[in-house]
C-alpha cells in the first residue's frame, strides 16, 4: 500500500518574530516493511540555514533557522511512503514467557538487547509507579507468554480508557490521565509503556500516522487526519512488536512510522525557540491518502 502524507503546521504570532531555531521530525523512517519514496519540507519564510541528520534513535531530523522578521511560519512536510510488508505476525504465536523476556534483557549480550535496555528505564514523560504496576499485574500473570500478556494489556487500556480529544495537552501529567481514565493516543501509549516498564520490560514510544476511513457514504475530508502514536515492546530474537491501544489493533499496512524514542519528548514533530512574536496560535492539518 502506498500513501501520500501532507502534514502542515502553521504558527500565527501576535507580534513580529525576528529569529527562530527549529527541529522537525516529520519525515518517515526507512524500515524493512516501510520505504519512504520521497519526503520534502517546505518552510515559509525560507530559512537561512537548513540541515538534516539522524538523531540518537535513528530518526530523521531537519534543523532550520529563520532570521527574517515574520508574523507567520508554515512548515509543510509532504511524503510518499510504500508499506510493503506487515509486521511479523508469526511472532504472535510465540510462547516465550514475559519473565523469560525480562531475564534475557539483562543476560543477553547482543547489541539489540543492550540497545533495548534503555527502554526499561524511566524517561522524562513516563515514570513507572505503583499504580501502573498494579494495573499491569492483571495482564502479566505468572508464566504468561509475553505477546499474549501485552495484547491483553492493550485490550484493557482500550476498554478502560475513553478517547477524549481536548481533554489533555502535551503538558498534562500522566497521573491525571490515569485518574480520569481519559486522554488521546499519546496518553494511552505513555500509560502502556509505563505499565510495561514497571514489570521490567522494554517499551518504546512510536509516532506516525494512520489511514483513517470516513463513515460509509460520507466523503473523505482532506486535512482532517492527525498524527498518531502507539508503542512497541521488545522480544528477544524477533525484535520490536507494535501495539496500538487507541484502536485495539496490531499496526499493519495502515500505520506509517515517523519516529521512535523513550516517550513523546524524544519525537516531538516540531519544536524550537523564537525571539519576539508575542503570543502565538497553532494550527495543524494532516492528510493521509492512499495513492496508486
From TrEMBL:
SMART domains documented for this protein: TGc
Domain Transglutaminase-like: 177-247
Family matches, as Gene3D superfamilies: 3.10.620.30
Protein's UniProt name: Transglutaminase
Amino acid at each position: 500500500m502506498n500513501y501520500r502524507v501532507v502534514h502542515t503546521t502553521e504558527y500565527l504570532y501576535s507580534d513580529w518574530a525576528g529569529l527562530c531555531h527549529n527541529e522537525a521530525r516529520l519525515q518517515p523512517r526507512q524500515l524493512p516493511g516501510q520505504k519512504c519514496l520521497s519526503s520534502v519540507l517546505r518552510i515559509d519564510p525560507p530559512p537561512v540555514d537548513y540541515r538534516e541528520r539522524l538523531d540518537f534513535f535513528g530518526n530523521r531530523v531537519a534543523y532550520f533557522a529563520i532570521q527574517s522578521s515574520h508574523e507567520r511560519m508554515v512548515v509543510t512536510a509532504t511524503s510518499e511512503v510504500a508499506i510493503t510488508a506487515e509486521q511479523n505476525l508469526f511472532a504472535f504465536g510465540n510462547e516465550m514467557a514475559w519473565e523469560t523476556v525480562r531475564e534475557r534483557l539483562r543476560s543477553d549480550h547482543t547489541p539489540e538487547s543492550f540497545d533495548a535496555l534503555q527502554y526499561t528505564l524511566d524517561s522524562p514523560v513516563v515514570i513507572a509507579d505503583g499504580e501502573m504496576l498494579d494495573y499491569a499485574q492483571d495482564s502479566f500473570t505468572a508464566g504468561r507468554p509475553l505477546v499474549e500478556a501485552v495484547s491483553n494489556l492493550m485490550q484493557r487500556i482500550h476498554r478502560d480508557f475513553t478517547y477524549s480529544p481536548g481533554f489533555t495537552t502535551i503538558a498534562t501529567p500522566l497521573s491525571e490521565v490515569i485518574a480520569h481514565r481519559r486522554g488521546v493516543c499519546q496518553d494511552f501509549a505513555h500509560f502502556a509503556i509505563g505499565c510495561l516498564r514497571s514489570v521490567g520490560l522494554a517499551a518504546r514510544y512510536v509516532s506516525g500516522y494512520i489511514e483513517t476511513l470516513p463513515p460509509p457514504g460520507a466523503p473523505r475530508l482532506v486535512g482532517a487526519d492527525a498524527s498518531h502514536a502507539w508503542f512497541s515492546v521488545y522480544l528477544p530474537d524477533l525484535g520490536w512488536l507494535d501495539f496500538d491501544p487507541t484502536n485495539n489493533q496490531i499496526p499493519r499496512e495502515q500505520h506509517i512510522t515517523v519516529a521512535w524514542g523513550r516517550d513523546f519528548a524524544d519525537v516531538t514533530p516540531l519544536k524550537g525557540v523564537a525571539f519576539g512574536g508575542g503570543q502565538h496560535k497553532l494550527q495543524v492539518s494532516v492528510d493521509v491518502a492512499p495513492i496508486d
